[in-house]
Amino acid sequence: MLIAEDHPLLIIGIESMLMESIPDATVFKAADFNKALNLLEKYTFDLLVMDINLPHGDKVGMIEAVRLKQPNILILVCSSYEEHLYALPFLKAGANGYISKTASSEEFKTAVEYVLNSKIYASPAILNKMFGILFNTKGSDSSALDELSVKEVEIAKLLTKGFSTKEIGKHINLSASSISTYKSKIFEKLGVNNIIELTTYLELNS
Questions:
Q1: Residues in Cβ contact with 94 at an 8 Å cutoff, skipping those fewer than 6 apart
Q2: What is the pLDDT of residues 22-69, one digit of tens each?
Q3: What are the pLDDT digits (tens) for 133-173?
Q4: 22-29 long-range CB contacts below 8 Å, 24 or more apart?
Q5: Can you give the C-alpha Rg of the chain in angstroms?
């Protein structure tokens, strides 16, 4: 098994939980993505537990890079990032599970068990979103983006580029108060709380 994580205390915790679940497991560790890829070239692993904010990594692109090295490896993403923003893109990219770093040890062990038994692991909310996408029902990320009007998409993109409401208003000939109203509607429709989350959402779902 391979742990790709750059925080020493988290590595210790993850390794401890893995050993409790699978006492005879051999665990390797990599503190950055390049080191993880090097280990994937040298050894065959059943499971990769991976952070998504690794040095030298490219977030969602890391899944494809791992699969190129070992197509059949099972991947459990373990992250402190907002689940509703990051889980679906990583699961769509081919991860076998997504769990928050704030999860309990028992939940982590359950996630490991699910993934090792070739089942997808995610929270109930994320699984509901996945079913929404599968059956093209409301609640999926793609339908949320589709709900934005052309004007809202334009404003959202300008917001992520660092433009203020006043600057956007001048750019598209609307008052700053109107832009603020649009901004609130965009945040509500996409389920984001700030510009950082909006930027991340558009990057992962565009």
A1: 63, 64, 67, 75
A2: 889 899 999 999 999 999 999 999 999 999 888 998 888 899 999 999
A3: 555 544 444 556 667 888 888 899 899 888 999 999 998 98
A4: 22/112, 22/116, 25/1, 26/1, 27/1, 27/2, 27/3, 28/1, 28/2, 28/3, 29/2, 29/3, 29/5
A5: 20
